[in-house]
Amino acid sequence: MTDGYLSSAEIRNRFLAHFEGRGHTVVPSASLLLDDPNLLFVNAGMVPFKPYFLGQETPPFKRATSVQKCVRTLDIEEVGKTTRHGTFFQMNGNFSFGDYFKEGAVQYAWELITGDQASGGLGFDPEKVWVTVLPEDDEARDAWKRIAGLPDERIQPRGLKDNYWNMGVPGPGGPCSEIYIDRGAEYGPDGGPEADEDRFLEIWNLVFMQEELSAVRAKDDFDIAGPLPSKNIDTGMGLERVAYLLQGKQNMYEIDTVFPVIERAQELSGKKYGASGSDGHLDDVRFRVVADHVRSSLMLIGDGVTPGNEGRGYVLRRLLRRAVRNMRLLGYQDPALPELLPVSRDRMGESYPELVTGWDRIAQVAYAEEDAFRKTLQAGTQIFDLAAGEVKESGAGTIPGEKAFALHDTYGFPIDLTLEMAAEAGLSVDEPGFRQLMSEQRERAKADARAKKGQHADTGVYRGILDANGPTEWLAYETLETESKPLALLREGAAVKALGNGEIGELVLDRTPFYAESGGQVADAGTIEFEGGKLEVLDVQRPVRGLVVHQVRVVDGELPADAPLLHARVDPDWRTGARQAHSGTHVIHAALREVLGPTALQSGSYNRPGYLRLDFGWLNALSPEQVHDIEQVANNALRADLPVDWQYMTLSEAKDWGALALFGETYDDTKVRVVEIGGPWSRELCGGTHVDHSSQIGTIVVTGEASVGSGNRRIEALTGVEGFSYLARERDVVGQLSTLLKTQPGDLVGRVGDLVERLKQTEKEIEKIRLAQLLSGGAALAGGAVDVNGVRLVAQRLDGAAGGDVRTLATDVRGRLAGDTPAVVVLIGAADGKASIVAALNDAAQARGLAAGDLVRAAAPFLDGKGGGKADMAQGGGTDVTRIDEALAAVTAAVAQA
Questions:
Q1: Which residue range or ranges hold the Alanyl-transfer RNA synthetases family profile domain (predicted)?
Q2: For residues 395 and 697, what is the distance between their CA atoms, to the nearest angstrom?
Q3: Is 628 a known ligand-binding residue?
Q4: Residue 70 marked as a ligand binder
């Protein structure tokens, strides 16, 4: 079928080289965590280019090519059951933005797939290539016939469901042409893709974006508003599919980047992949789950995801735990990830070297999650045992679906393990009931996802302004004030002729000194003045790339849309504070890495004048010593007056230079801004405003460190004047306490420690005295016992006594009564508006047929409460202290009837 074996990395490199040689800009894979309200993860190669296809932004190139990391999560539970489902995959793509169209796409694809391997092609036999087209797409059909020489019988027409692409929402769409490879008669019947898609395997989809869709009801049911202003190309070639064809394998699980994990899992478990029989089939599924989930988890952690209970973190947690669980089902009980994850790293690291350089952090996150899950399994086993015991006691043989679901949903206990353990216990599980509850949960999740689709802002109006006027001249790095012309005045998304006094709207200027919120830095504050009036700037954003939009409130006069000239001025104090905070964030990040090590990487940040917070991946709380060291390193950097510089370079150059690119951020490879503080000590990609020297930050005062989710910590700090003010307040508190305690500030900690210790000792002495006084009343209570039907009964009210004291006294009184005579002690305390009841019985009273729990239950209803316990001791409580005497009378009556 082909010239010979090609590794996955080689296929990737050949694809990129092929299109780079044909004028395409090579764009690095975007992070899996692009900021898109409709997506948890990037799930297609075109996702990073969506703004260009939607017309929201102007592409910086006419042609591009990429190999994009992708994750699809809708069918995680189906992974491994067939060889088609996978969570992580790589999509090779080439893209044209108003440049070449169908003929070019067909030409480039044909040259690559059929080109001989010695010349850089993939080497597929041209006689094995089939394609599909939309029936009415004569242009695509003609291109395949003319360029590739394909006969009519190998160009199959297929309908809209197969050969029309859209996003599922209004926007661009168009017909597509899918490329298939005939694997041979041993894989199925002849007849092309229409007959059998196992034998005829799709490897590449060429999408011809040429139409604007106004409504999309289904994949094959939509309305076309008209042609797109420019025709675009979006293609996607599945790297894993091409790999198993070129490597002579049966499926994606057997290729060079996946199967080594299965091989190691075989060694650990002693099981054989591909063994015959039903058990062998189940084991094969488990091997495939392990291989897929280990690789997917590696890639997600590599892009900054940490395990959690919602969103991306929950997906990662499921993947890791399913991998561990399936190793257990294969018979391997020891920690599995330390054995498997390095294998996947070694195979994927050739294409993604950041997996190697970031390995310590990745391993730390993954191994900690496995340790936690092993504890969950232990706890879940105890819960399962209780549930199984209840089922057996009731005489039933089936664990209810809601119990299985609670084990899964609340305790993270997988259903497969519940089924396995139930079978071992001779029980079954109500799987339909469990599946129904899972389905309901899934539907709720889908409804939430559908609701999120409404979060896209309508950027059409901003795009129109940008197209009509060009990008905003952004001068935030150069100046704090400019003379500007208004380009658009909006209110609630529509153009208006004027804004009146007190009204809020949006203003677009031809040039602006205002920093638009991004990279964790809030927007600048300031004013915009016009003849006869003044505006307060409330917010500054970039709804589309290149356009800066100011949200303003009219504080004086009326602003006309055609005002001739405006004066925009950033509040200088605000900008100074913002620069200090943003540079302080970089300093704290560098200090974190110096104190904790290179795995302490920033996962998010926020800074405003005088304040910063930085989230970073770390599993444990920092010790006070570590926090102090971080603060000390940071302030030493300020004292050193380190130079702060920035320069522009390509993304690849920045990474080679050692600059940190933060997780989840997107960067344009043609030009990125690298900010460095003290040379290589701190180098980060950043578009924020910064001080010129580190000393200008003033001070950094760490005010807090806390958890913000599994595997994530947050450190907060104050900078500049705000930091000094915080320290001044702390100084004042120290001074006041020193005066109050008549000691020197340096001796304050010791003095307070002595006071605390003396207070503790005093409290202990007071407790001893109080307990002695309480027990001293025990003799009087015992002496006041009355005979009720041959039972010595003490039934008394104790005002001011709470639960613990009531129990202590009841036990003491019971011990004072003779053991050979039935004795019952029932005491009801009243404190803070609540009643506490305790019943204590000796052995003789129990032999008489009395039980402490029954007596508490007889009294509790009068107290508007409940309670119970064992035959010798029981307790309860209530919220009605007005009927204690009635409750005691009920106890006396119950004893009398015994």
A1: 6-729
A2: 72
A3: no
A4: no
